[in-house]
Amino acid sequence: MAATEGATATAEAVEASGAPAPDAPSDFGEPTVIADGLHVVYRVRGAAGRSGGGGPAALLRALARRKGGGGAREVHAVKGVSFVARRGEAIGVIGSNGSGKSTLLRAVAGLIPPERGKVYTNGQPSLLGVNAALMNELPGERNVVLGCLAMGMTPAEVRERYDDIVDFSGINDKGDFISLPMRTYSSGMAARLRFAIAAARDHDVLLIDEALATGDRAFRKRSEKRIKELREKAGTVFLVSHSNKTIRDTCDRALWMERGELIMDGTAAEVVDAYEEANGGD
Ligand SMILES: Nc1ncnc2c1ncn2[C@@H]1O[C@H](COP(=O)(O)OP(=O)(O)OP(=O)(O)O)[C@@H](O)[C@H]1O
C-alpha cells in the first residue's frame, strides 16, 4: 500500500501503525483504500478576511488589507474521515453542496496532501472528474488516443479499443462530432467522452466525480453496466453523485459527508434512505 505523503507502506505496516480499521462489509476483497483520520485544509491566499460589517468603508478597508497581501484563509474541507474500502466495492459518496465529497476523492487520488491523518492506497487510483484534463483545442479523436496512451495503453490496444470508446461515449450518435475540437462540445458531451476513455481500462481504484450526471438515460445505463464490470474485475469504484437513484442502482455502499465530516457509512440503501429522510424526501 502507498501512503499519500510519498512514503510506501505495506498492509502489515498499516496494521503495525495502529491505524484503526473502521467497520467494512467483510464479504469483499482485500483493502484498496484506507483513510485514517483524514483532514484536508485549503489555504486561500489573498482572501478578504471576515469583514465586521458591510458598506463602502468596510469594503475599502478590506481592499487595503488585500493590497498588503491579505492573509491566507483556511477552509477545513475534510475533518477526521476514516474508512476502509475493499476490492469489488462500489461506494457512493453523497452529501449537500460543499460538504467535502470532491475534496475527499482528490485526497484519495493523492492530488491534495492531508493536513493530518493518512490515506493508504493499494494500487493506482484514477480520478475521473468533470475537470479531468483533455486538450480542448484537439479533436475528440486525438483526445481518445492521447487519453488512452496516458493511461498506459499501447498503441495497438488503443487501435483495438478506439471504436468501442467512441460508441460508448455516444459522441457520434448524431453526426461526426468526434473529429471536431473538444471546445465545441457541450459539457455533457465532454464528460461522456472522459468517462468512455477512463472506462476503457480496468482500474484498481476508480474515482468518479459526477461524470455520470451529465449523460442521458442510455449513457447512464451503459455507465452503470461498465461500473459493475469494473467491480467484478476486482477494482474499487467511488462515485460522487447528487442522484440518489444512481447511487442506489450502482453502489452497494455509501458514505454520507456533511460539513467535512463522515456522518454515515453503510449500505447504499440505508444511507440514501437516511439522507432522503434528513432532506425531507427527495
Ligand atoms: N480549491 C479550493 N480552494 C479553497 N477551498 C475549496 C477548494 N475546493 C473546495 N473548497 C471548499 O472546500 C469545501 C468542500 O468542497 P468540495 O468541492 O469538496 O464539496 P462537494 O461536497 O464536492 O460540493 P458539491 O456537491 O457542491 O460539488 C467547500 O467549502 C469549498 O468551498
UniProtKB/TrEMBL annotation:
PROSITE patterns: ABC_TRANSPORTER_1, ABC_TRANSPORTER_2. Residues 1-27 have a biased composition (Low complexity). Gene3D superfamilies: P-loop containing nucleotide triphosphate hydrolases. Residues 60-278 form the ABC transporter domain. Residues 1-30 are annotated as: Disordered. GO terms for molecular function: ATP binding. It holds the Pfam family ABC_tran. InterPro entries: AAA+_ATPase, ABC_transporter-like_ATP-bd, ABC_transporter-like_CS, ABC_transpr_TagH-like, Bact_Polysacc_Export_ATP-bd, P-loop_NTPase. Keywords: ATP-binding, Nucleotide-binding, Transport. Belongs to the ABC transporter superfamily. This is ABC transporter ATP-binding protein. It comes from Nocardiopsis suaedae.
